[in-house]
Amino acid sequence: xxxxxxxxxxNKFLIDYNLKKIIGDNIEEAxxxxxxxxxxxxxxxxxxxxxxxxxxxxxxxxxxxxxSKPKLNHNIDDLIDYINNPVKTTIIIFIVNLEKLxxxxxxxxxxxxxxxxIECNEMSSEQIFNYTKNIFxxxxxxISDSLIKYLIDRVNSDINFISNEVNKLILYDELITKxxxxxxxxxxxxxxxxxxxxxxxNNDKKKMFSxxxxxxxxxxxxxxxxxMLAQEFRVIYQVRILTKKGYLEKxxxxxxxxxxxxxxxxxxxxxxxxxxEEILEQIEKLADLDILIKTGEIDKxxxxxxxxxxx
Length: 311
Hints:
single chain, alpha/beta, globular
């Protein structure tokens, strides 16, 4: 185990997942580097643990490792000195809710040599499949690869949904079939998401807010809605490109790892009414919104409602 870790990226689930893997059942000391300076935290990190062999120090909002300007002035020279001479009984974890670290900074060059750097951005289709399959394997659940793919598609490859819904299936005491998945697993891509896309493309604000309020009432977080909308806009764009190249719907399903023909048909219907530039603009807006919320720069509900009003 390393003494220093850096978890960076915009996928909160992956950050939490990797943090849990590092800390396990140990108790951590948590510090927000938007509220306390790094030199103060390092002072605590240099103290010996009192009730265990190791001390775990978690530093959230370590934004000085990215390109954005931090809220506080941090003594980076003190951090560099600590990286070169870490306390062997302390495990320190820096969390950076940004897509990438600033490779130009001396401290990051040193961290690359001395720390374990873990990227926590979006997972590939293969990574999501392997993650989901491993949960079933660890719990001795017999389920086919095709059903795992069907499950993943049903929840729109949303890793947060996957974790919740897989737990339902683990508790199921009989053979898992497609019908069981249909009965037990919440379907994140339903008419509401398609209707949401329609309302955005038609700039129907009354409908947008009606669907948004219903989604929140049903337990969806703004960050989840953003992920689902962005995913569908990406599918629309990919379907447009592949259709232009002459691919048939069945081929497109295989290429995009999509197992519902309805999503392809919806996308093909939408590409007639929106340009490439408009699709990419929506994807970019949703990505920016995602980062603003995850870095805590704006309240999640306010941010999403302002996004809808600005359309």
